[in-house]
Predict the 3D structure of the following.
Amino acid sequence: DVVMTQTPLSLSVTPGQPASISCKSSQSLLHSDGKTYLYWYLQKPGQSPQLLIYEVSNRFSGVPDRFSGGGSGTDFTLKISRVEAEDVGVYYCMQSKQLPRTFGQGTKVEMK
Amino acid sequence: EVQMMESGGGLAQPGGSLRLSCAASGFTFSNYGMSWVRQAPGKGLEWVAGLSRNSVGTYHADSVKGRFTISRDNSKNTLYLQMNSLRVEDTAIYYCAKENGASSGYYEHFQLWGQGTLVTVSS
């Protein structure tokens, strides 16, 4: 299975400040079709996960532009330009280049 | 509004069975692949099973293969998960999730999630 490793596992952020989460995969997620099958999800407290970013850097419908994704191959990053109170929760990366689809352990983001 | 509503969770004994359902609305259910993803208490996310829009392609995680079966009824806009030979480690919230496309598995992702149903396996 492809192992997804996130760092840090927890993050305390001051509102209005930037935040960054790293996700590394044990195998390249770049496919011969040119796409990279890496996604980001946010699970807010008491809620189900919601899609933020698909294929590394594409924001899903309705996702604020303060969220951005980047990276390539095996190293990926989710950035929040200015963290807001509604951004608290656990962030997961996920790959779908190989089955089974696998998730990172999650990064818990909280406000200082 | 797109909605998925899971039901069927509850308490089961080890070795027992449960059948989960996921009623979908607000989109053309028969056009999309669907999956089940679970989350053990206080833990991360684990994909359990998925199937394509026409049920031709089905996939199950090794941890549930031979015990769980995913299926769907497009005439009822409903996804199912038959869970047999339950184990304590199957205790989790089970979410149904809509895929972004017609298949489920390689190269797909979970576009929308239901609210989940809790399955507790305990004697």
About this structure: Chain A has a mean pLDDT of 97. The two ends of chain A are 36 Å apart (CA to CA). Chain A is about 0% helix and 50% strand. The first strand of chain A starts at residue 4 and ends at 7.
